[in-house]
Amino acid sequence: TYHLRSVEASREPVLRKIIFEHGKWDIMSQTILQQTDTTLRPWIIKFFVGNEGVALFSVARSVYTALIGLIPIKQILFPLFARNLADKEKNIILAQKASKYSVIFYLIAGSIAFFGISPFIHIFFAQYEASILLFRILLIRMVITGASYGQPAFFYAYREQRILFWFNCLNIISLFTFL
Fold it and tell me: How far is the C-alpha of 98 from the C-alpha of 108, rounded, in Å?
């Protein structure tokens, strides 16, 4: 506390300014949209297909999420964009290259997973063999995910989370389409 004695607190409400100027879109996107999506999807699947469908979708989604998480592209890009805020052109090129190489990586990883999932599920989780088709359908989204990986960090860096919010709405609509 000795070091903080010389620091004077801001007289204006900083947190309120952050939330109402650019934080609201992130709050709506991260909490409301994604939590609603995560909560409602199993109920919708259960309504149309039953409990077994929820289990199959859960297995396919878990394998898909593990495959997407192999390379933490977002965690790499956020600091790079923040470091180069003044050079927007450089960040645009960085976002384009990140999208390009993400698509290439996810095409290769998706191709390997497309053919490698059958023996893996058959050997280790035989009771979930029906989830293979669902997983392969989810792999279509992997290319879209790879193409969109450079953009969130860019939108955050330049305080354009509003655009990101609408992209997340479209993403959730596409997820419900691939149910």
Answer: 15
The CA angle 134-140-142, to the nearest 5 degrees, is 110
Q: Are 138 and 60 in contact (CB under 8 A)?
A: yes
Least confident of 13-27, 38-52, 137-151, 163-177: 13-27
Euclidean distance between CA atoms 178 and 70, whole angstroms: 22
The DSSP symbol for 12 reads S
Distance CA 73, CA 153 (A): 10
Q: pLDDT tens digit string along 87-131?
A: 878 878 887 888 888 888 888 888 888 898 888 888 888 888 888
| Rounded Cα gap, residues 44 and 73, in angstroms | 31
- Which sign, positive or negative, has the C-alpha torsion 148, 23, 18, 159? positive
Give CA–CA dist 76/95, Å, rounded: 11
Q: Is 68 helix (H, G, I), strand (E, B) or coil?
A: helix
Looking at residue 29, its amino acid is S
Where residue 101 falls (left for φ over 0; alpha for ψ -120 to 50; beta otherwise) is: alpha
Structure tokens at 164: 């990101």
Helix (H, G, I), strand (E, B) or coil at 84: coil
